[in-house]
Recover the amino acids of this structure.
């Protein structure tokens, strides 16, 4: 082959190579990764090709000389029919340093595996599959405990609606009592002292729910009209001593005072910043910048934004409307003027503001929280008094189960609270007492009774129809559609109406019936679930009553259980007393007289744990025949859970044989 033929062959080979590469690039023009790869290949071959300056390789040079085509493939030109790419800078046949460096960067990124997508998808792409819970047998072994319980469709939509702690948005059949409370407490919104209120009623008649409902409305309305009013709730069945009540109230008001002090300090700091900005002349420069840039905001709302950097809210001051960039009728050639930040305040200088800040910080440091034990009661009362009187406000203290507080610690707490207003300077205190005992005021000091019972509201029991309305109202929120059969709510209402119209009992019954149906994976709550719930609640109530009995009453009840377990029926008081004495000796407890044991049996009868009937034995006198009215095994288990009675299980007391006539 001659030299001319060899040159032509070499030139044809280069042309075919360029055409092939440009064709591949054209076929993959929609993919960023493919374009980058082709660019890298072209650069690598151009660096290695000694004929880079040959005119036949112009298409390669054009590809290399366009950095935009390598860096941002979305902007590339589509190749023509001949597979060549046209570019403004390709005719020079040169590559700029930036264009030369960029493809190498792309090549480095293509040479490493892309783990970003994997990390974004899984979050733990470097962990083996077994640690992620996939593909391993260990994961299967951990399943099944709750899967069966979760497999069924839930019946409840919101179970919390059926709990006693829930305060509904409306209370059916209690509008009269609510309106009466509102007419008494509205005085607080006028800055006056409301009368004290005593609320009576049996358990489950809506006393606490109604009082909480009114208190929420009172607080929200006080915020609406900017009238300071605080309502504090205390459950005296839990907080049952004067020390605890006063300590809890004192700490609540100390916490509120600190929060209000922080808000005031924050507002005063902002005022101080505005004063410094104004006096340093930044207000004028900001006004000029605002005027010059009026209407230049990209969003077009520059006239509605406050001045940045001043911390001054111009929306409340008419003098700053033009400063904020709002349209003004004044002549633009006139200088803009702004009122001094102190003009609308009680302060005359920045020093006065700083003095007030220091005073507030000192007040905050002076508050000392009350420990739950350890202080003298008069010191606790003094701290509570100072915390309440720190601000001008009306305070409503709600004491639920107030009779428990009187039983435990007397009427000293009520006396102190009811007499506070004569000593307070800034605030006023009103008391709302809630009680199940209609006669607890009979044991109060006459002075406390006269000042405490200014207004009395009685909550009557609900009847079956009213309970049905309450359950219907709650069930619409608590259960899913068509989850209750038609006879469920009437049956729950009937059961609760038999027990003094207790709405709490009706709600517990409906909730328990729903829970039993859900555990059985039933689609609908039916009458059978309600009856099972009734039995379950009865047992739970007995367990709670027995668990809280005094030790002597537990011993008497245990003696009755032992007699029944040994086959004795129609137990009399003498037999119970004999076994009771043996049990007291075993646990080293004091032995009460037989008359006192008879009284304890009467108390158990009143609680419904035993049935005690007085029968006449003729010339042998009268006696009580006693029998259990609760399940033996469950009751015995509750008694044995008491640490003092736990060792009695192995004792078999002597039971005297008795001949029946």
């Amino acid at each position: 082959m001659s030299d001319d033929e060899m040159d032509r062959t070499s030139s044809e080979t280069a042309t075919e190579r360029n055409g092939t590469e440009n064709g591949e690039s054209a076929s993959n023009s929609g993919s960023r990764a493919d374009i980058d790869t082709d660019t890298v290949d072209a650069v690598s071959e151009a660096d290695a090709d000694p004929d880079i300056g040959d005119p036949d390789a112009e298409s390669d040079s054009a590809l290399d000389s366009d950095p935009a085509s390598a860096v941002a493939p979305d902007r590339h030109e589509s190749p023509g029919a001949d597979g060549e790419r046209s570019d403004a800078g390709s005719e020079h046949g040169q590559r700029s340093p930036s264009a030369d460096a960029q493809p190498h960067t792309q090549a480095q990124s293509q040479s490493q595996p892309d783990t970003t997508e994997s990390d974004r998808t899984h979050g733990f792409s470097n962990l083996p599959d077994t640690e992620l819970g996939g593909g391993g047998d260990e994961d299967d072994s951990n399943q099944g405990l709750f899967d069966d319980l979760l497999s069924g469709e839930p019946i409840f939509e919101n179970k919390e609606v059926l709990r006693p702690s829930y305060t509904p948005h409306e209370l059916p059949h209690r509008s009269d009592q609510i309106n009466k409370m509102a007419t008494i407490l509205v005085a607080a919104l006028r800055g006056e002292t409301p009368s004290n209120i005593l609320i009576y009623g049996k358990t489950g008649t809506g006393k606490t729910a109604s009082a909480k409902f009114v208190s929420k409305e009172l607080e929200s309305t006080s915020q609406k009209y900017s009238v300071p009013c605080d309502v504090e709730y205390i459950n005296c069945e839990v907080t049952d001593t004067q020390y605890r009540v006063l300590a809890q109230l004192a700490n609540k008001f100390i916490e509120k005072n600190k929060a209000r002090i922080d808000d005031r300090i924050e507002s005063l700091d902002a005022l101080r910043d505005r004063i410094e900005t104004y006096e340093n002349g930044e207000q004028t420069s900001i006004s000029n910048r605002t005027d010059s840039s009026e209407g230049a905001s990209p969003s077009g709302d520059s006239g509605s934004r406050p001045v940045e950097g001043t911390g001054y809210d111009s929306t409340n001051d008419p003098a700053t409307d033009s400063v904020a960039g709002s349209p003004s009728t004044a002549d633009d050639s006139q200088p803009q003027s702004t009122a001094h930040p102190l003009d609308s305040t009680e302060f005359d200088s920045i020093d006065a503001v700083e003095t007030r800040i220091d005073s507030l910080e000192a007040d905050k440091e002076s508050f000392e929280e009350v420990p739950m034990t350890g202080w003298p009661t008069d010191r606790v009362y003094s701290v509570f008094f100072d915390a309440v009187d720190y601000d001008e406000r009306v305070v409503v203290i709600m004491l639920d189960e107030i009779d428990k507080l009187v039983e435990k610690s007397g009427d000293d707490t009520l006396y102190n609270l009811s007499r506070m207003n004569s000593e307070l300077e800034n605030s006023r205190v009103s008391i709302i007492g809630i009680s199940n005992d209609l006669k607890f005021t009979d044991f109060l000091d006459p002075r406390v009774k006269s000042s405490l019972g200014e207004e009395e509201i009685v909550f009557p029991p609900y009847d079956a129809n009213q309970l049905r309305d309450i359950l219907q109202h709650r069930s619409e929120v608590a259960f899913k559609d068509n989850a209750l059969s038609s006879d469920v709510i009437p049956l729950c209402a009937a059961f609760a109406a038999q027990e003094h119209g207790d709405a709490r009992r009706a709600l517990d019954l409906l909730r328990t019936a729903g829970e039993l149906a859900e555990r059985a994976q039933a689609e609908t709550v039916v009458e059978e679930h309600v009856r099972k719930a009734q039995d379950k609640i009865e047992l739970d109530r007995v367990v709670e009553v027995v668990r809280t009995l005094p030790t002597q009453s537990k011993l008497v009840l245990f003696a009755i259980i032992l007699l029944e377990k040994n086959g004795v029926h129609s137990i009399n008081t003498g037999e119970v007393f004999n076994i009771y004495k043996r049990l007291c000796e075993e646990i080293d407890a004091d032995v009460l007289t037989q008359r006192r044991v008879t009284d304890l049996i009467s108390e158990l009868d009143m609680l419904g744990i035993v049935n005690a009937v007085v029968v006449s034995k003729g010339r042998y006198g009268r006696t009580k025949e006693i029998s259990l009215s609760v399940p033996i095994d469950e009751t015995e288990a509750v008694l044995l859970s008491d640490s003092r009675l736990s060792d009695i299980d192995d004792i078999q007391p002597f039971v005297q044989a008795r001949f029946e006539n």
User: Anything to note?
Assistant: The CA atoms of residues 65 and 94 lie 6 Å apart. Residues 242-279 form the longest helix (38 residues).
